[in-house]
Amino acid sequence: MIGLQSYAYVTANAGYTFQTSACVMAPANNDPVIAYMQSEHIYYAWSHGWLGDPISFKTNSAIKTSDPRFLTQNPPWLGRLPNYTLAVTHADRPSILTLVKHDDPNPPQLQVLTINSISYRLGRFISEPGYDILVITPLNHAVTISEAVWIAQSFSFC
Questions:
Q1: CA distance linking residue 25 with residue 97, whole number of Å
Q2: What is the pLDDT of residues 68-79, one digit of tens each?
Q3: Quick check: 14 pLDDT over 90?
Q4: Is the dihedral of CA 35, 87, 53, 143 positive or negative?
Q5: Domains of the chain: which residue ranges?
Q6: Least reliable range by pLDDT among 48-52, 105-109, 114-118
């Protein structure tokens, strides 16, 4: 029995810890996203938990993510990790992680930024077949909490 548990522990992969049937579009391998965020010095991001939590976990909290929806509840709630929510809230222009369909070159998440005159830097990565993950970094000013909620949660499949 101890041998089997030891084998399971040694072969466990932190990247799969948060994989769920609730969001099968979330990337099983988010290493390219993490590498991009680290190379671009992105330490804070708004994100749905299925996208952001594994990144925070795998980077040992070097990249902090939080779900902006928590702040719009009545009363506001700071989420599962209140320190992360506060850190992202107070960060200067935190990025946003979201999912889009692979064949959509101008998804609604980017259209709302353009409409609101928010310039941004974009990283786009293959997530699962047919879907991409976007790392959107506002450049000229931060998005509001309500904009972050809409952008991060506008992908309705997760």
A1: 13
A2: 776 666 566 566
A3: no
A4: negative
A5: 2-153
A6: 48-52
Q: Output the DSSP codes for 112-141.
A: HHHHTT--EEEEEEE-STTEEEEEEEESSS
Give the number of residues written for the chain.
Answer: 158
Query: Is the distance from CB of 147 to CB of 120 less than 8 angstroms?
Result: no
* Integer-rounded Cα radius of gyration of the chain: 16
Q: DSSP for the chain, please give it.
A: -HHHHHHHHHH--GGGTT--GGGTTS-S--HHHHHHHHHTT--EEE--HHHHHHHHHHTTTSSEEE-GGGGGSSS----SSHHHHHHHHHSSS-EEEEEEETT-SS-HHHHHHHHTT--EEEEEEE-STTEEEEEEEESSSPPPHHHHHHHHH--TT-
